[in-house]
């Protein structure tokens, strides 16, 4: 039996399984390194080459699940990587680790960074799903500054300027995280020189007529609901912090409320002065 033939589907199909020996090899005439291993049970494709002055044997797949043409294509890729000094296992790992679209990168960013390290990850996930899916379909290799600018402009007009700016910050953070993790690379960062709306949030002032309306509505609510809303107003703290307030965080004599890092949005301790109205609510609740 010839040890070198043109490996085609027909030629491989015609080869008998190993008999009298554990295995034998047939090498392709056209592509040096492409080899078929034949045992008593199956026929398998391999690349046999020298790598860093040592013999290397790398399995591509089994025949007929992998055809001769596909085996040849895969072998060409592997041999090309070997010539660049890249081991096939490393090339495989890079391929499995690769992300193609912005949406795929965001999912990795969500799973590997936002969930473990931030508290507001669910809001970021929802916001991306609401406003960034169209941009998320873009392939990273073809994502341009113009794409990002058009998307920012569209969200600003259709949804809101603050929403556009906030979601842009998420996209920029996601892309820069991807670059640091070697998941993507850009010759030019598509998030630079983007014109944002830079809208400053309005300070809401509760005027006397509005305050009377609020009190009239709250007078019809249960006492604990009134206390929660009034504490939210008197401290300007986040609703979640008010709901999770504990007595050990309150310093009545110093009229201070210390929110520990594990409860704050930015992970830093917050100290909030307590007004007379806030102290009155706390004193009443402490002795009821």
If you had to describe this structure to a student in words, what would you say it looks like?
By secondary structure, the protein is of the alpha+beta class. Helices cover 48% and strands 15% of the residues. The chain has helices at 9-14, 68-83, 88-97, 102-117, 121-131, 133-136, 145-158, 161-180, 208-218, 223-235, 239-243, 276-286; strands at residues 4-5, 23-28, 34-39, 43-51, 54-63, 250-251, 256-259, 270-273. The strands form two sheets. A five-stranded mixed β-sheet has the order 1-2-3-4-5, covered by helices on one side. A three-stranded antiparallel β-sheet has the order 6-7-8, with no helix packed on it. Helix 4 crosses helix 8 (161-180). The longest helix is centred in the middle third of the chain and has 20 residues, at 161-180. It starts with a strand and ends with a helix.
Layout of strands and helices, then pairs:
Blueprint: E1 4-5, H1 9-14, E2 23-28, E3 34-39, E4 43-51, E5 54-63, H2 68-83, H3 88-97, H4 102-117, H5 121-131, H6 133-136, H7 145-158, H8 161-180, H9 208-218, H10 223-235, H11 239-243, E6 250-251, E7 256-259, E8 270-273, H12 276-286
Parallel strand pairs: 1-2
Antiparallel strand pairs: 2-3, 3-4, 4-5, 6-7, 7-8
What's the total helix number? 12
What proportion of the residues form beta strands (DSSP E)?
A: 5-15%
Query: What number is the mean pLDDT?
Result: 91
Summing up helix and strand content along with how strands pair, one would put the structural category as alpha+beta
Gross morphology is elongated
Strand order of the largest sheet: 1-2-3-4-5
Distance between the termini: 97 Å
Order of helices and strands: EHEEEEHHHHHHHHHHEEEH
Rg, nearest Å:
32 Å
Helix content: 40-55%
Pick out the low-confidence regions. Answer: none
**Main beta-sheet strand count, sense and barrel state:** 5 strands, mixed
Total number of strands? 8
């Amino acid at each position: 039996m010839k040890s070198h033939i043109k490996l085609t589907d027909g030629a491989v199909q015609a080869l008998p399984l190993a008999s009298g020996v554990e295995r034998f090899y047939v090498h392709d005439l056209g592509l040096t390194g492409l080899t078929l291993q034949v045992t008593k049970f199956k026929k398998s494709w391999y690349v046999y080459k020298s790598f860093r002055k040592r013999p290397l044997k790398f399995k591509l797949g089994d025949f007929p699940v992998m055809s001769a043409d596909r085996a040849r294509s895969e072998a060409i890729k592997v041999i090309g990587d070997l010539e660049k000094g890249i081991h096939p296992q490393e090339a495989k790992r890079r391929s499995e680790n690769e992300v193609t679209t912005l949406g795929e990168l965001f999912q990795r960013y969500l799973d590997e960074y936002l969930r473990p390290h931030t508290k507001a990850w669910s809001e970021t996930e929802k916001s991306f799903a609401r406003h960034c899916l169209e941009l998320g379909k873009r392939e990273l290799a073809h994502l341009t500054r113009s794409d990002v600018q058009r998307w920012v402009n569209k969200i600003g007009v259709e949804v809101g300027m603050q929403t556009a700016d906030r979601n842009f910050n998420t996209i920029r953070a996601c892309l820069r995280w991807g670059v640091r993790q070697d998941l993507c690379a850009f010759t030019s960062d598509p998030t630079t020189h983007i014109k944002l709306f830079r809208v400053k949030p309005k300070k809401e002032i509760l005027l006397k007529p509005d305050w009377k309306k609020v009190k009239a509505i709250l007078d019809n609510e249960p006492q604990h609901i009134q206390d929660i809303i009034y504490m939210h107003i008197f401290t300007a703290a986040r609703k979640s912090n008010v709901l999770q307030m504990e007595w050990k965080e309150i310093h009545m004599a110093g009229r201070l409320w210390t929110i520990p890092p594990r409860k704050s949005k930015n992970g830093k301790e917050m100290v909030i002065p307590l007004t007379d109205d806030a102290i009155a609510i706390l004193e009443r609740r402490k002795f009821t």
